[in-house]
Amino acid sequence: MQELLKPIRTESLKDLFIKRFEELILSGTFPVDQKLPSERELALQLRVSRPVVHEGLVDLAAKGLVTLIPRAGTIVNDYRKEGSLSLLTSLVNYHQGDLEPELLTSLLEMRLLFEVETARLTALNRTKEQLQSFYTLLREEDNIDIFSIEKVSELDFNFHHLIALSSGNRIYPLLLNSFKQCYTNLAGQFFIDSTVVPEVFRFHQQMVEAFENKDDGTAAQIMTRMLTHGANKLKA
């Protein structure tokens, strides 16, 4: 019942502006190098204030979708060349979780490069306190409602984030945090099939055993199998 009665949230005008222009750019409706109307013209056409337009364009620029040129206007970028990591969430939202095979494969390749190494390093560098934190997460997994997609997705992210923290590399947790929304969006698609939840949790248990034994080779192998298993499910 609590899941059904979550608070109702409305998007701000700025968020709606960003969403509209992301769709227009990602769909190709606004082609690369097109100059957008001025902030004043956009505000009049969309019937919003100029600060809403300006702040929205600044956010789009931060994602690499447009370039703001002082006294010259706003130009649409080729997001494949100029896009930042924050654009990844927009791409997932634009495709409504149904990613094209090329993008899904690219995500898997990135995660294999990044997370297999974090698992290996965690087996070598984890502290006793961090190992206890892993066991705390495993206990939470034992008691979770596997039909609560949001909670399962959040717990799964926390497990991977703890691996990044325990690796000893200070940059890996920042990278994982930078695409948390994208991660949880995809996880939400994956965990719609509740039968995969116990399978993922078994991978987690096996990995924690490897961490406890400081077996970096086994930890890397388990992470590889788990990520490949997840990608195959999403592609099916």
SSE layout and pairing:
Elements: H1 13-26, H2 39-46, H3 50-62, E1 66-69, E2 73-76, H4 79-82, H5 87-94, H6 101-125, H7 128-143, H8 149-166, H9 172-178, H10 180-190, H11 196-212, H12 216-235
Antiparallel strand pairs: 1-2
Description:
The chain has a two-stranded antiparallel ribbon with strand order 1-2. The longest helix has 25 residues, at 101-125. The protein is mainly α and 236 residues long. It has helices spanning 13-26, 39-46, 50-62, 79-82, 87-94, 101-125, 128-143, 149-166, 172-178, 180-190, 196-212, 216-235; strands at residues 66-69, 73-76. The protein contains twelve helices and two strands, in the order H-H-H-E-E-H-H-H-H-H-H-H-H-H. Helix 7 (128-143) runs antiparallel to helix 11. The chain folds into two domains: 13-84, Arc Repressor Mutant, subunit A (Orthogonal Bundle), CATH 1.10.10; 99-235, Four Helix Bundle (Hemerythrin (Met), subunit A), CATH 1.20.120.
Short structural description:
This protein is mainly α. It has helices at residues 13-26, 39-46, 50-62, 79-82, 87-94, 101-125, 128-143, 149-166, 172-178, 180-190, 196-212, 216-235, and strands spanning 66-69, 73-76.
Kindly list the characteristics that best describe this protein:
236 residues; mainly alpha; Arc Repressor Mutant, subunit A; Four Helix Bundle (Hemerythrin (Met), subunit A); 2 domains
Rg (C-alpha, Å)? 21 Å
CATH architecture of the largest domain: Up-down Bundle
> Distance between termini?
31 Å
Helical region count? 12
* Largest sheet composition: 2 strands, antiparallel
Order of helices and strands: HHHEEHHHHHHHHH
What is the CATH superfamily label of the largest domain?
Answer: GntR ligand-binding domain-like
Q: Just give the CATH class of the largest domain.
A: Mainly Alpha
Strand content: under 5%
Q: How helical, in percent, are the residues?
A: 55-70%
CATH topology descriptor of the largest domain: Four Helix Bundle (Hemerythrin (Met), subunit A)
